[in-house]
Inverse folding.
């Protein structure tokens, strides 16, 4: 059985993510988080920052499968951080979208993945064993493209 999220559940996810952002901004938690992350990552170059962002967005994309909810939650922190470190926000968005796209191929809450597997009658475990090499190759390609883009 495939569970397809309704439109109101997506609105709830975006609303909760926006609420967290408002609370963090009003309580000045965002500023504190940005300050400490900037101190921790200040010595890294653009290439390593983008690779770290890609690696950070991978588990976040799994935990928050809604790409718009993840953007609402993470971009208010990551975009200013990129600006502080002199990294192009376009490359940060590329890292975010790439991680989200890679994870959307395996997230068990994705109606497309689970629906396609149900139609093909392929067990999820079999699919995971088959898809891991492709995911590793795609992730490696993304890291290379991000590194080249940051170096240029």
């Amino acid at each position: 059985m495939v569970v397809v999220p309704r439109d109101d559940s997506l609105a709830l996810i975006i609303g909760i993510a926006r609420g967290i952002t408002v609370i963090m901004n009003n309580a000045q938690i965002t500023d504190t988080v940005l300050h400490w992350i900037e101190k921790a990552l200040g010595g890294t170059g653009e290439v390593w920052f983008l690779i770290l962002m890609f690696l950070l967005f991978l588990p976040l994309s799994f935990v928050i499968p809604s790409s718009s909810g993840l953007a609402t939650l993470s971009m208010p922190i990551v975009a200013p951080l990129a600006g502080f470190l002199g990294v192009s926000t376009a490359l940060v968005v590329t890292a975010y979208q790439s991680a989200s796209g890679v994870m959307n191929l395996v997230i068990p809450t994705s109606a497309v993945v689970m629906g396609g597997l149900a139609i093909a009658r392929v067990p999820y475990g079999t699919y995971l064993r088959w898809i891991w090499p492709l995911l590793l190759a795609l992730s490696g390609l993304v890291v290379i493209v991000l590194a080249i883009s940051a170096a240029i």
